[in-house]
Design goal:
This protein has helices at about 1-5, 10-20, 40-55, 60-65, 90-95, 120-125, 130-140, 140-155, 160-170; strands at about 20-30, 75-80, 105-110, 110-120. By secondary structure, it is α+β, with helices and mostly antiparallel strands. Strands 2-1-4-3 form a 4-stranded antiparallel sheet, sandwiched between helices. Helix 3 runs antiparallel to helix 4. It starts with a helix and ends in a 7-residue tail after the last helix.
Length: about 180
């Protein structure tokens, strides 16, 4: 599948346009009630803002202040796209960011988040653990397209049996999608 994507940038471009894949990190200040933060919670928000404003690395600030399990990894949540199971406010804010952009505070049911978009480009994303799985989940016929492309590259020969070729394409949901 990775080889197919490498050799067919237009296929990835379609996925990218439709699903907005990216890698993101965040800093979460958990709150009992994000509509009514306590003085202590607001003090932590201010400490995060001050640390980032001073030029401290986002990952270091996440390790120091984030109230999330991702803190140990510098706040990294890894690969995501528009189908990732994040709360709507978080997902929308993450998708709106360009590579290396950092959001303002995003309020969710969990508290306040600052989100950083770590990567959006194919070269960086294709190395992510969940990259291929997410693409395969986005289009059930994608895997068969990759298999068919490899079969053609290897010189699959039906020896003139167009019925067999057509039946196989239909079975693989490729008929009319070439």
């Amino acid at each position: 599948v990775k080889e197919y994507l490498d050799n067919n940038p237009d296929v990835y471009a379609e996925y990218e346009k439709e699903y907005s894949p990216r890698e993101v990190s965040h800093i979460l200040v958990k709150m009992e009630d994000s509509e009514n933060p306590t003085d202590e919670e607001l003090a932590k928000v201010k400490a995060v803002e001050d640390a980032l404003a001073s030029g401290k690395d986002f990952a270091e600030v996440a390790k120091e202040y984030s109230d999330d399990g991702s803190a140990a990894n510098g706040g990294s949540l890894g690969f995501m796209d528009k189908n990732t199971s994040f709360v709507t406010e978080f997902l929308d804010a993450a998708i709106a960011l360009n590579e290396n952009e950092v959001s303002d505070w995003v309020k969710t049911q969990y508290g306040y988040h600052i989100i950083k978009c770590d990567a959006t480009g194919y070269d960086k994303l294709s190395a992510a653990d969940d990259f291929i799985a997410n693409i395969l989940n986005s289009d059930i016929s994608f895997k068969t397209k990759a298999i068919w492309a490899k079969a053609e590259e290897l010189g699959l020969d039906f020896k003139g049996n167009s019925e067999l070729e057509s039946a196989l394409k239909e079975y693989m949901m490729l008929e009319g999608n070439e």
